[in-house]
UniProtKB/TrEMBL annotation:
Protein name as annotated: HD domain-containing protein
Transmembrane segments: none
InterPro entries documented for this protein: HD/PDEase_dom, HD_domain, NA-bd_OB-fold, NA-bd_OB_tRNA, YhaM_exoribonuc/phosphodiest
Phylogenetic classification of the source organism: Bacteria, Bacillati, Bacillota, Clostridia, Eubacteriales
Residue ranges of domain OB in the record: 27-88
Coiled-coil region: none
Length: 315
């Protein structure tokens, strides 16, 4: 049964992937699951299972494929699935978890090669050494790590795909503005979100189960600043180069309320922020529009400032 076709009041029986799961405590003290579930078409629905037993908390975690019996209800104008029964799939079900895991549309090795070739072309030795060291240390993890738990590029390999897409945008824009130092801009793009690897806990399916203690207390920006300092010092890098790279990481969210204590103060840092926003918003728009029919509107999307998008009906 496809998520896209379900209606309020309908019974549901089918296979779903637990994209995210949080166990919470109800006002009566009982435990319940708050889940995001997706089908093999990657359409999603919120799910709840009440009165969860302790052993179920160990079994039904992020990244598991399950067979669910439940009922579709409506809450706050959104459909949700109330789970009555749930079990892990077994061999007799003849379904593959790989069909339920959304992955990036570009080959992993192709993206890694593109980024490594970019680093190899750097002319500034310090920028090249810092970027190469940090990026190469995370190559294996980047093959599956998502860029977020719930928002943009929250899929297997999403962080690498986000870097790759941003780098392509950056190379297009850098040619327009002669004042841009390409090494600095491209290094900022490659490094800007790589601290997320230490911010979140992800399995090899790209499903994030939680944030690390460091992620909750410090965040990926702070963690990446610390890593830059340690790597830069160990390589004996030019202090000015190191300072400018740190500023790009520090300012790429632009606003203090979004985690950046400084706004961009030179052109490469300014471009980094806008390239990041372009790629994140275009990805979010594409995902939302793919879920509606031509000539119709999406639901209000809070990642896009609460707007509803219109999907055109012509090519």
């Amino acid at each position: 049964m496809k998520i896209k076709s379900v209606q309020k009041g309908q019974n549901y029986l089918g296979f779903l992937f637990i994209k995210s799961q949080m166990t919470k405590t109800a006002t009566n003290g009982s435990r319940y699951f708050n889940m995001v579930l997706n089908d093999a078409n990657f359409d999603e629905i919120d799910g709840k299972k009440w009165d969860v037993k302790p052993e179920e908390e160990e079994i039904f975690t992020n990244g598991k494929l399950v067979k669910i019996k439940g009922k579709v209800q409506e809450f706050n104008n959104r459909l949700q699935l109330i789970v009555e029964k749930m079990r892990l799939v077994d061999e007799s079900d003849e379904v593959s978890i790989n069909d339920f895991i959304e992955t990036v549309p570009v080959d992993i090795d192709e993206m890694l090669g593109y980024i490594n070739d970019t680093i190899d072309d750097f002319t500034n030795a310090d920028i090249a050494a810092i970027t190469s060291k940090i990026f190469s240390d995370q190559t294996e993890i980047l093959s599956y790590f998502p860029a977020a738990k719930k928002h943009h590029h929250a899929i297997k390999g999403g962080l690498l795909y986000h870097i790759y897409s941003m780098l392509r945008i950056g190379k297009s824009l850098a040619g327009i503005y002669p004042l841009i130092n390409r090494d600095l801009l491209y290094a900022g793009i490659i490094l800007h979100d790589i601290g997320k690897i230490n911010e979140m806990v992800s399995d090899e399916n790209g499903s994030v189960s939680d944030y690390t203690p460091e992620g909750k207390l410090l965040g990926h920006i702070t963690q990446e600043i610390v890593e830059l300092e340690l790597v830069g010092q160990s390589l004996g890098a030019d202090p000015e180069v190191l300072m400018m790279l740190k500023h790009m990481i520090l300012s790429h969210h632009y606003q203090p309320e979004f985690g950046s204590p400084k706004r961009p103060m030179f052109p490469e840092a300014e471009l980094l922020h806008h390239i990041d926003m372009i790629d994140a918003r275009m990805y979010t728009m594409e995902q939302a529009l793919n879920r509606v029919e031509p000539g119709s509107f999406t639901e209000a999307n809070w990642s896009l400032d609460g707007i509803s998008l219109y999907r055109r009906s012509f090519l």
